[in-house]
Amino acid sequence: MSTTLAPAPPLRIGPIALDAPVVLAPMAGITNTAFRRLCREYGAGLYVSEMITTRALVERNATTLRLIRHHESETPRSIQLYGVDPTTVESAVRILVEEDHADHIDLNFGCPVPKVTRKGGGAALPWKLGLFREIVTRAARAAGDIPLTVKMRKGIDPDHLTYLDAGRIAEDAGIAAVALHARTASEFYSGTADWDAIARLKETVTSVPVLGNGDIWSAEDAARMMAETGCDGVVVGRGCLGRPWLFGDLARALGGPQAAHGEPVDADLAFVARAFRRHAELLVEFFEDEGRGCRDIRKHVAWYFKGYPVGGDTRARLATVSTLDEIDELIDTLDLTAPYPGAAAEGQRGRAGTPKRPALPDGWLDSRDLGADASSALADAELDHSGG
């Protein structure tokens, strides 16, 4: 299942040199310290935190302060911020820099969640060019020597694309790289990502790396995206759900042998069960609570065991575990000699959703300038939702 290809050119994001041109996409409730550590154990690249709301960070919310903490083994430390107010975003960046919480900061302009776009945030925000420019410019200035990057979508819908304008603005503002999820907000995660848009962005933004995101389910997909679009690296989200060893495959395919840890994996059921158990163990350590850690691993069961001969009753019991001992007992009931099932374990994972008309503030599309009505709509946009 692993492929060895010609190594990709080295990727630098500001002063950060990556052994493999691969970035873990922020995913709410997924890319906590436990999952990032697990992915790092298999491969190389940049592993980004869950999305952090700038208002919550500035207000010193206890949960948020916990989420920005990294394990001592995590380097470089990467944090993604989401915000809609230039002053608040700037203040949040300053906190991360001055208090030494991060080595890399990413700004999220790709969230398609209606509760966010309805208030003008996420993927809706780059439509307002002046607001986008002010946020990115002030954030980049506040970041100083810490590289600041931007992640965005193509736009709101096919008739309201923003990514080329946003890419040029971000480049001029001094960001270190730009990443594009090649879908619009209206597509959510449905259909097929438009890799041609990544190629167009790469032609437009020429002084900093352009990273591609969307429909990378394997190392072969990543290599093909880079070859077809000319992008400098890839951002991987749903493709690694239940498959943290994908980063080993990616490192071997794109970064060469020095970037991956260990040999190519034989993902038989024994291997997958060990990875699942390790993930649960790291979650328990992260939450400092066995019950909470085991509750959190439940949502990963279907992803890890997709395509494997694990019966419905066992899956149901794994999805209700409360202790690591329970996990061990259930793993002992599996036929751990079962081989990798091939295509049944591959392909899309996670919810794709369906295309829908984006929820936007009244009159949002009437102008690319930010009027008084739009300014008031942004006041409640900073909610703890992720995506991109």
Give a written overview of the molecule.
With 388 residues, the protein is α/β, with parallel strands linked by helices. It has two domains: 15-263 and 352-380, Aldolase class I (TIM Barrel); 269-339, Non-ribosomal Peptide Synthetase Peptidyl Carrier Protein, Chain A (Orthogonal Bundle). Helices cover 38% and strands 13% of the residues. It has helices at residues 33-42, 54-58, 62-67, 86-98, 114-117, 129-143, 163-173, 195-204, 219-229, 246-255, 269-287, 290-297, 301-304, 312-318, 324-331, 372-377, and strands at residues 11-13, 16-18, 22-24, 46-53, 78-82, 104-109, 148-153, 155-157, 160-161, 177-181, 210-213, 233-236. An eight-stranded parallel β-barrel has the order 3-4-5-6-7-10-11-12, surrounded by seven helices. A two-stranded antiparallel sheet has the order 1-2. Strands 8-9 form a two-stranded antiparallel sheet. Helix 8 (195-204) links the parallel strand 10 and strand 11. The longest helix has 19 residues, at 269-287. The model has no long low-confidence stretch (mean pLDDT 92).
